[in-house]
Amino acid sequence: MRVVSYEDRHFAGVDALWRACFPGDPPRNRAAAAIPAKLALGDGLLLVAEDASGAVIGTVMAGYDGHRGWLYAVASDPLLRRSGIGHALVEEACRRLADLGCVKVNLQVRAGNATVAAFYRKLGFDEEPRISMGRTLG
Predict the structure, then answer these.
(1) 78 pLDDT more than 90
(2) What is the CATH number of domain 2-122?
(3) What is the mean pLDDT of residues 102-129?
(4) Core vs surface per residue 24-45: b (16+ CB within 10 A) or e
(5) What angle, 0 to 180 degrees and rounded to 10, lies between the N-to-C axes of helices 31-41 and 11-21?
(6) What distances in angstroms separate CA 53 from CA 16, 56, 57, 91, 118, one per listed residue?
(7) How far apart are CA 57 and CA 9, in angstroms?
(8) For the chain, what percent of residues have pLDDT higher than 70?
């Protein structure tokens, strides 16, 4: 397995992976909308884990606004979970964020998703007392 920056050749694999891992996500989070928007930023923070054949087996999308970093769309092939893919993706994203000067990384976990919360705790993330709020525009 290797972690690389996203390339156009990864689109179908990322799309399939996100549909499998995030089946209830709204259309704005689907690959067809999210990937072009992310690539337009030109920050190189959409990462893909590939197997030896080049097939997509994981993703992470990171963001940095100069104040703090964020992780989004951390996903790994459900058949390959617990094999280090997610760990490798998160660590590479954090390394790239740190290289940009980022000193704190945030992420959100859906309420009730204890398995994913436990995964992030093992990677050094702590739960913070916050209320997550959002507003859809347009």
Answers:
(1) yes
(2) 3.40.630.30
(3) 94
(4) eeeeeeebeebbeebeeeeeeb
(5) 120
(6) 17, 9, 11, 22, 30
(7) 14
(8) 100
Domain layout of the chain by residue ranges: 2-122
Residues in Cβ contact with 21 at an 8 Å cutoff, skipping those fewer than 6 apart: 75, 76, 78
Angle at 66 between CA 65 and CA 70, to 5 degrees: 50
Mean pLDDT, the chain, integer: 96
Residue among 30, 28, 36 nearest 15 (CA): 30
Q: What is the pTM of this model?
A: 0.93
pLDDT single digits (tens) 119-130: 999 999 999 999
Distance CA 61, CA 29 (A): 12
Return the structure tokens found at 136.
Answer: 């859809």
Q: How far apart are CA 127 and CA 37, in angstroms?
A: 29
Give the end-to-end CA distance of the chain in Å, rounded to a whole number.
Answer: 39
The confidence score (pLDDT) of residue 138 equals 82
